[in-house]
Amino acid sequence: MSPVTIYDTTLRDGTQGTGISFSTLDKIRVAEKLDDFGVHYIEGGWPGSNPKDAAFFEEASKRSWKNAKITAFGMTRRGKMKVEDDPQVKMLLDAKTPAVTIVGKTWALHVTEVFQVTLEENLAMIADTVAYLKKHGREVLYDAEHFFDSFKEDPEYSLKTVKAAQDAGADLIVLCETNGGALPEFVEETTRKVIAHLGRPVGIHTHNDGGVGVANALAAVRAGACQVQGTINGYGERVGNCNLTTIMPNLQIKMGIDLGIDLTRLRELANFVDELANVPHDIRAPYVGVAAFTHKGGLHVHAVQKLARTYEHVDPTLVGNQRVITISDMSGQSNVLVKAEGMGFKFAKGDARVQNILTEVKRLESEGYEFEAAEASFEMLIRKQLGQHQPVFNLIEYHSTHRFHGGEHGFETCEATVKIEVDGSRVYTADEGDGPVNALDNALRKALLPFFPALKVMRLADYKVRIIDGGTGTAAKTRVLITSTDGNATWGTVGVSCNIIDASWKALVDGIEYFLVRQGGLITP
After folding, report:
1. What is the largest CA-CA distance in the chain?
2. Which residues contact 177 (CB under 8 A, 6 or more apart)?
3. How far apart, in whole angstroms, are the C-alpha atoms of residue 474 and residue 481?
4. Burial class of 234 by CB neighbour count within 10 A (0 to 12, 13 to 18, 19+)
């Protein structure tokens, strides 16, 4: 185990951020990515708080996780209620996760004014819940909410709350800087005092309201904290949580703390989560932003070409990013190599085909394509560049319509027709759907199914649209991201066009061809 563990709460605390939402499938895909990346804990949500979280834990319980412990989040029992009678506590056990995090009140202000219980009852609520969960074999992490605000006003009671959790058997006490207003010096000093009082390390959970969420977490680690809680890209309520994509390289590269994580995939992870959340990438994000290692003209370019560390605080490849010098057409080959080789393609050093792939990627990205959450489209691009692509069909034409029927009981119909040639045979099909894209998907699948029976298990699982250049109004380019599944694996594809139907068609075709290649349904040269 790492001396410092990483606890990701993107799927719970992160989704409380304005404009951040994930479907159940999104949450599973993010959790799989985080697990593969190597984080130690993944907080999946609050069981019973909404159907998506309940569905996530049901699905997560059926899967094997390589690195992370899936964690359910809840709170202490309610006041004046037996812990075994509290339905919220029962839902935590029903989630079947190996670890459970419960949040409890530390600040007397919240205890008496919000919970409206006595200070002594609050201590009992903490202890009872921890002990009950431990009795049922769970690893228990106790989040001490508003700890630093509380400690500033009443250090004695604050310490009583965390001691109550520890004495009841909590595996880790986590100090929460919930309001995000403390400064690093106070966080470090307070964390040292708590560790001395408890005689063991603690975790840290910070918010970024004062712009120092990462700095506060680093301060706590300097004081002896053994776990950092945060979110990918800093998503979270108000202005967000401690940004894990910033703090992980700071811990591992700058502070020399081995997290056991391969940071060369950090930028890929950050962009993947942004794409599934359907929010623009922060180009100026430390370490992972496009601009993080971009040098534009003048003295900077001259210096970096001679000695990169003159204007780069770390080697960008350490975090999966790349140096961008606007006058160089060679930047980015290493990223293409890493991604391609991860998909099973092998290239000799200096292989000219890598540059061809990079040139095509850059051309498509200039048109608005993004491949971070569209790995299947990226693989199909490589196959086309290598001459390893055989089209499933030749398109003759397709047509998609939406009709709204007025009147007192108005209704709508969406219909699509597809005319294609498969293996020398012309096929013409029509079908309806819940929207023009769904109708098009149904019609295309109907046309292909007699030739490729394996398609019967494939379906469209999610569909996202992003307007790329909104300044042009309704003439703007549209990027469509489609997630497909066969019931086991999921894969993403992307299409870009000024026409949303055309963009959707490109993503649909990529998804089908990728599936058939993986199934062995296509014979490639």
Report:
1. 82
2. 147, 148, 187, 204, 205, 206, 207, 213, 216
3. 19
4. buried
Using a pLDDT cut of 70, give the percent of the chain over it.
93
Q: Which two tokens stand for residue 378?
A: 């990226």
Phi, psi of 512 (to 5 degrees): -70, -45
Q: What is the pTM of this model?
A: 0.71
* DSSP run (H or E) holding 157: helix 155-167
Whether 458 and 484 have beta carbons less than 8 Å apart is answered as: yes
Cα–Cα separations (whole angstroms), residue 497 to 465, 475, 493, 494: 11, 10, 14, 10
pLDDT value, residue 449: 94
Q: At residue 441, does pLDDT exceed 70?
A: yes
- Mean pLDDT of all residues in the chain? 89
- Asked if 111 and 126 count as a contact pair (C-beta separation under 8 A), the reply is no
Residue 97 sits at φ, ψ, to 5 deg, of -95, 150
Residue length, the chain?
525
CB-based contact 69:99 (threshold 8 Å): yes
Q: How far is CA 323 from the centre of its chain?
A: 24
Residues 39, 69 contacting (CB under 8 angstroms): no
Q: How far apart, in whole angstroms, are the C-alpha atoms of residue 71 and residue 46?
A: 9
Q: Which letter does DSSP use for residue 253 in this model?
A: I
Residue 259 in tokens: 């997290």
Q: What is the band of 524 on the pLDDT scale with cuts at 50, 70, 90?
A: very low
Q: What is the CA radius of gyration of the chain?
A: 26
CB atoms < 10 A from the CB of 417, how many? Answer: 17
Which two tokens mark 125? 């609520």
In sequence order, the 6+-apart residues with CB closer than 8 A to the CB of 259 are: 2, 4, 5, 6, 38, 248, 251, 252
* Secondary structure element (H or E) that encloses residue 229, with its range: strand 227-230
Exposure class string for 191-223: b at 16+ Cβ within 10 A, else e? bbebbeebeebbbbbbbbbbebbbbbbbbbbeb
Contact 155, 116 (CB under 8 A): no
| Enclosing H/E stretch for 295 | strand 294-295
Strand pairing class (69-75; 99-105):
parallel
pLDDT for 521 equals 47
Q: Please give the average per-residue pLDDT across 253-270, as a whole number.
A: 95
Q: What is the rounded CA–CA span in Å between residue 137 and residue 141?
A: 13
pLDDT higher than threshold 90 for residue 109: no
Cα distances from 166 to residues 7, 89, 118, 144, 163, in angstroms, run 19, 19, 20, 11, 5
